[in-house]
Amino acid sequence: MDILAPSTAPDEIARRAEALDTIAAVLPIDRRDKLAELLTDQDIETLRHLVNQGMGDNTLRALTSDLAYLEAWAMAATGNPLPWPAPEALLLKFVAHHLWDPAKRENDPEHGMPIDVDHVLRDGGFLRAAGPHAPDTVRRRLANWSTLTKWRGLEGAFASPALKSAIRLAVRAVPRPRRRKSAKAVTGDVLAKLLATCSGDNLRDLRDRAILMVAFASGGRRRSEVAWLRKEQLTIEAPVTAEDGRALPSLSIHLGRTKNSGAGQDEVVYLAGRPVEALNAWLAAARIDSGSVFRAIDRWGNVSRRALDPKAVNDIVKQRVKMAGLEVGEFSAHGLRSGYLTEAANRGIPLPEAMEQSRHRSIQQASSYYNNATRRSGRAARML
After folding, report:
1. pTM of the full predicted structure?
2. What CATH number should be reported for the domain holding residue 374?
């Protein structure tokens, strides 16, 4: 089965691609042609409306990605575009196709997502991981589906008892251990080893050193926040006086609205000292005075004008982990975020002060790193 609806003519795809160009700044535009095939005219109008309403860039990218997946899944599973509003039966089918028991699938090929649907989604690049979806992924996609439905002025069956029960029973039937996004945190000692691999003065070393130091010191920024950082978000601040009396360069980073910020709230974090020096060295060497801060570098040493892809930030971290002689599978870009709070706990920095920089809103989530550090070094762990 082909995901692309037979009635979609090439000129219609071209027209939709042009429409997507008007919101290219907040979309994964490297997949523009694929999105133009999948999304309907009304889908695109809804996305443009959300852009005009001021929805956060990261939120809109995630919503667009989920919408494209839902449209692809609906076409593969039913042979028709996603209906609005979706009937309860289709929502239940979505749950059944994505939350299933691998053990039961071995004896019952009809259990879970049908093989032909699976193949179509994989061939289209929409499905990569083996096995069922994570429950949080299913909940997020259903939540975005519900949001898009409401933005169209429609009501869906997303709050139906049958749907809630189906998700609850499916999750209970196949318990999944919660895994950290990075098996190990990039704490200060690990970061030092990574920085030692990029101590040279070539462009790639200067960029990677700035990425690692800025991402960590700014509170453990997410890889998307690092990849999409722009020069216009940086403001030079008055020098900060160090304990030894030295004047340290300082700047502020205006993050705008983030995953954890409230509507209309401009999140700001601060850097001082070595991270600022590393960032300035990269900007000067790459001759960047506006636009994207962190960019790709080709094999001839040319710096791109476009921002790095968030995945590239993760690739850079893993490459430096490998160069440092550490286990690549144990670390990822998210380890910089967990590492910041873990290191803050190890150094005795008060939790509220660390949260001001990490911008965590949940004390419970942030304190988990502190609790782990305390338990590891506390008396209860040293009984013998």
Report:
1. 0.59
2. 1.10.443.10
Give CA–CA dist 372/364, Å, rounded. Answer: 12
Contact present, 331 and 175 (Cβ < 8 Å): no
Instruction: State the pLDDT at residue 251.
Output: 93
User: Given the structure tokens 């809103």, which residue do they identify?
Assistant: 361
**Are 241 and 233 spatial neighbours (Cβ–Cβ below 8 Å)?**
no
- The number of distinct structural domains making up the chain is 2
42 residue type, one letter: Q
Report the 10 Å Cβ neighbour count for 152.
16
| Number of helical (H) and strand (E) elements in the chain, helices listed first | 17, 5
Q: Starting at the edge strand that comes first in sequence, how are the strands of the sheet with 247-256 ordered?
A: 234-241, 247-256, 267-272
Task: Give the pLDDT confidence of 280-336 residue by residue, as tens digits.
Answer: 999 999 999 998 999 999 889 999 988 888 889 999 999 999 999 999 888 888 889
CA-based end-to-end distance of the chain: 64
- 213 and 298 inside one domain: yes
Tens of pLDDT, residue by residue over 89-146, are 999 999 999 988 888 888 888 888 999 999 999 988 888 877 888 888 889 899 989 9
Query: Would you say residue 196 lies in a domain?
Result: yes
C-alpha 52: how far from chain center: 22
Rounded to an integer, what is the distance from CA 91 to the centroid of its chain? 25
Q: Please name which of 287, 297, 268 lies closest in space to residue 359, comparing C-alpha atoms.
A: 268
- Say if residue 182's pLDDT is above 60: no
Contact 332, 318 (CB under 8 A): yes
Helix axes 41-52 and 57-78, enclosed angle (nearest 10): 170
Whether residues 207 and 135 share a domain: the answer is no
Q: Are 25 and 48 in contact (CB under 8 A)?
A: no
Same domain as 348, residue 223: yes
- pLDDT for res 29: 47
Query: What is the domain extent for residue 346?
Result: 188-381
